[in-house]
Amino acid sequence: MPDIILSNVQKSYGGSGPNAVSDLNLHIGNGEFMCLLGPSGCGKTTTLRMIAGLENLTDGEIRIGEQVIDSPAQGKFVGPEKRGMGLVFQSYALWPHLTIERNIDFGLRLRKLPKPEREARVAKVMAALGIEKYRGRYPSQLSGGQQQRVALARMLAVNPGVLLLDEPLSNLDARLRLEMRAELKRIHAEFHTTIIFVTHDQWEAMTLATSIAVMNEGTLQQIGSPNDIYERPANRFVAEFVGSPPINVIEMGKGHALDRAAQDWLRPRLGDAARVGSVGLRPEALQLASSEAGVPAGSFAHPATVTGILPTGGSWIIELNVEGRVIFLTTTSCPTLTGGEAVWLYARPTAIHAFDGDGQRLAGADEALARAEGGVQIVRKA
């Protein structure tokens, strides 16, 4: 399947409200696993439906390679049945009166494939998804995770060039979701199918995707690899949406002691610190020292008080109070702290995310903070 290219795509449902999708530009490469990530109502499902052909564009165009499949300006629209795509909804939509084997070969029968080829394809996908022993059962006799595998097998059997998944794991419990994430990762590696996956779950996106497109209120906020999205968020929305516990944000100019300390620390390192509207500190990037003497030279630091320790299994969340402001820190080492204990929190320069007054990542700040770390330029691969 050639690349899928969305150019200046708009979708409006009429009325005076904002667009469901505004000026969206996406390039989805052949064999890519792309996640459309964002909160409810951000336009991700609408985007998926436009790619599938279930929604018409208001403006812009969608191409598969050089073929335009939807363009209001050119008066072109290719129906969903001719796009070579398979769509798996949140609801599995299995035929209740057909066995699992018949559900899987349903699309192949519609295409009038010869029986030997149908049987070979069905056997291959059932083996790949570990559902051979259920071939004679009916959907009502399977668990949610097993039904999800059948829905995926039905799509994979027709060998679509693109697999479109609309929050397919949201109905599963935590253990089954984990198993199905691993299954999808393996399917992508084995079948080399282009996958576009819609989710509001950041961990699904981070663990599955080769690239993530973060959306909010119908607009694309950032596109990049999972590491790039997490380590170099393009703006405060991305920084605050991706990460659990969420990133700690320090607002400049609010008059709080922590704000003033951050501004004083940034000024000699960034030059014009007045351009900084806020800074973000990931909880896992923060560390603690028992006294100021234990803070490494060059770090941003501030005294704090421990107000809570929350075990989460393999890690601990430490709640800190900095003169009335709550800061969260995470650690994988069992803390020996107690509530009410006075400590110093600190972060190395390269752990600090600087944003301007509009919430956009501050250009040049990463390089300046890397020099402050010790003259070593850190290059992150996309």
UniProtKB/TrEMBL annotation:
Xref: InterPro entries: AAA+_ATPase, ABC_transporter-like_ATP-bd, ABC_transporter-like_CS, ABC_transpr_MalK/UgpC-like, Mo/tungstate-bd_C_term_dom, P-loop_NTPase, Transp-assoc_OB_typ2
GO CC, any one term:
ATP-binding cassette (ABC) transporter complex, substrate-binding subunit-containing
The organism is Paracoccus litorisediminis
By what name is this protein known? Answer: ATP-binding cassette domain-containing protein
Highest taxon, organism lineage:
Bacteria
What family does this chain come from, according to its entry? Belongs to the ABC transporter superfamily.
**What Pfam families does this protein map onto?**
ABC_tran, TOBE_2
Keyword annotations of the record? ATP-binding, Nucleotide-binding, Transport
Domain spans labelled ABC transporter: 4-242
MF (Gene Ontology): ABC-type transporter activity; ATP binding; ATP hydrolysis activity
